Amino acid sequence: QVQLQESGPGLVKASETLSLSCHVSGGSISSGTSHWGWVRQPPGKTLEWIGSMYPTGSAYFSPSLKGRIDISKDTSNNQFSLRLTSVTAADTGVYYCARIQCFSPNCPFDLWGQGALVTVSS
Amino acid sequence: SYVVTQPPSLSVAPGATANLSCAGSNIGTKNIHWYHHKAGQAPAMVFSYEYVGPSGIPERFSGSKSDNTAILTITSVEAGDEADYFCQVWDDSSDRVVFGGGTKLTVL
């Protein structure tokens, strides 16, 4: 079955760039009827959508984070990655990658990774 | 921007029915999805009005919606249902995924 696993540094300095990858096993990120997304949860707060990427590599982002985000794919390793620039303490949280069930943004996140805790230090 | 409101907490006895609400302007016209999130685990989809969820979701989970409110109903609540429950929609007007604030379900 399809599984997702986040990886990346757990500590990032303020003003630097947060980089995370999501490795997908059991299915290809470049085909099928799904697309892929990133969601985060700051401590004590609700889930916050970051952005999503289609199998083609085309992506769409949260308006509140646009300008700081990039989501890209690495087909050879069957993974997709998040880059968030100019981080501050407000970017601290658990970052989840997830599969979106179909090609529309209306579709649910039907499979999630375990999450990666990222702390931004001053 | 679009706001989705959930009560912060709900407590129910084992075996009872839990009704978790999710309110938003004209939310009944949107595709709405529900997730539960247990401490230390990944969030998991538990119900969608429009899409089929992953296999293994108990039939105890069902939903209804009206103009401005969506309800997730969990019948015969078990201790294992204790979790944070989030609803989620796509807001066309702002082109963003919106999550509710979440409801912490406690099984007494």
H-E order of chain B: EEEEEEEEE
Portion in beta strands of chain A: over 45%
Helix content of chain A: under 10%
Number of strands of chain B: 9
Quick one: which chains have the greatest interface? A-B, 27 and 28 residues
Q: What global shape of chain B is seen?
A: globular
Low-confidence stretches of chain A: none
What kind of assembly state do the chains in view correspond to?
Answer: heterodimer
Which sheet architecture does the biggest sheet of chain B show?
6 strands, mixed
> Rough shape of chain A?
globular
Ends distance of chain A: 40 Å
Q: Which SSEs are present, and which pair or pack?
A:
The complex is a heterodimer of chains A (122) and B (108).
Chain A: E1 3-7, E2 11-13, E3 18-25, E4 35-41, E5 48-53, E6 59-61, E7 69-74, E8 79-84, E9 93-100, E10 109-112, E11 116-121
Chain B: E1 9-12, E2 18-23, E3 32-37, E4 44-48, E5 61-65, E6 69-74, E7 83-91, E8 96-99, E9 103-107
Parallel strand pairs in B: 1-9
Antiparallel strand pairs in B: 2-6, 3-4, 3-7, 5-6, 7-8, 7-9
Give structural notes.
The complex is a heterodimer of chains A (122) and B (108). With 122 residues, chain A is mainly beta. Helix content of chain A is 0%, strand content 51%. Chain A contains no helices and eleven strands. Chain A has strands at 3-7, 11-13, 18-25, 35-41, 48-53, 59-61, 69-74, 79-84, 93-100, 109-112, 116-121. In chain A, the strands form two sheets. In chain A, strands 2, 4, 5, 6, 9, 10 and 11 form a seven-stranded mixed beta sheet that branches. In chain A, strands 1-3-8-7 form a four-stranded antiparallel beta sheet, with no helix packed on it. Chain A is globular, with a radius of gyration of 13 Å. The model of chain A has no long low-confidence stretch (mean pLDDT 95). Chain B is mainly β. Chain B has strands at 9-12, 18-23, 32-37, 44-48, 61-65, 69-74, 83-91, 96-99, 103-107. In chain B, strands 1, 3, 4, 7, 8 and 9 form a six-stranded mixed beta sheet that branches. A three-stranded antiparallel beta sheet of chain B has the order 2-6-5, with no helix packed on it. In chain B, a hairpin with a 4-residue loop joins strand 7 (83-91) and strand 8. The mean pLDDT of chain B is 93. At the A-B interface, strand 5 and strand 10 of A face strand 3, strand 4, strand 7 and strand 8 of B.
